[in-house]
Amino acid sequence: MGFWPRFAVVLVKSVMTIWTRRSWRGMEHLRRPGGVIIVPNHISHADPLVAAHFVYDSGRWPRFLGKASLFRVPLIGGILRRCWQIPVERGTTAAVESLDRLVAVVDNGGAVVIYPEGTTTREPELWPMKGKTGAARLALATGAPVVPVAMWGPERMFDPRTSRLNPRPRIPVTVVAGPPVDLDRWAGVPPTKAVLEEMTDVIMLRLRDLLAEVRQADPPTLWERPRRADRPGAAA
């Protein structure tokens, strides 16, 4: 693995072991052979550490897709690169290069972690927001399974609504990986905007329902894509 990946493992696992009291289920869905696309919900700035711990303990090395600005932070950026994480410049041509790197990682049997919301959720109850299409695009390009991972508890470690850090030890954290999302109907279909949006909605709704099981709560109806006839000017 090399010095820096081993250093990251020791650091993250040591901190997480003290900081959290973990309830983990569904690791078997990550232990399948071949590449895998992991899509967690994003409820806190602390949950990447939780997700990394979960994925690593399942026997996989997590390759996160992260904001390029993080990779420009002194020391942190260097560690991220040496630990094989992948920066992305959103809204630029460099984003295409990031997708190519992700395809190569998945095709070589790696585990890619993509937060489909793109940022921490802005929903007041911390339910998932509408997703972006990166995970769907990668799934079409590789045919790899998309595994939803629902987390609940990292918001107690760092609450994005109040920006408060809670340093107390043994905070309860639940992480559950579900079966791969059924995307077979789109196998081999060109990645048009409509196709990617439909796939993304299916991924996000499955992630929402998995989180509802974890939270033992009724999820809200987060969104409903308007039918074509309902759109302004559609009749014309």
TrEMBL record:
<dbReference type="GO" id="GO:0003841">
    <property type="term" value="F:1-acylglycerol-3-phosphate O-acyltransferase activity"/>
</dbReference>
<protein>
    <submittedName>
        <fullName>Phospholipid/glycerol acyltransferase</fullName>
    </submittedName>
</protein>
<keyword id="KW-0012">Acyltransferase</keyword>
<dbReference type="GO" id="GO:0006654">
    <property type="term" value="P:phosphatidic acid biosynthetic process"/>
</dbReference>
<keyword id="KW-0808">Transferase</keyword>
<dbReference type="Pfam" id="PF01553">
    <property type="entry name" value="Acyltransferase"/>
</dbReference>
<feature type="domain" description="Phospholipid/glycerol acyltransferase">
    <location>
        <begin position="36"/>
        <end position="154"/>
    </location>
</feature>
<dbReference type="GO" id="GO:0005886">
    <property type="term" value="C:plasma membrane"/>
</dbReference>
<dbReference type="InterPro" id="IPR002123">
    <property type="entry name" value="Plipid/glycerol_acylTrfase"/>
</dbReference>
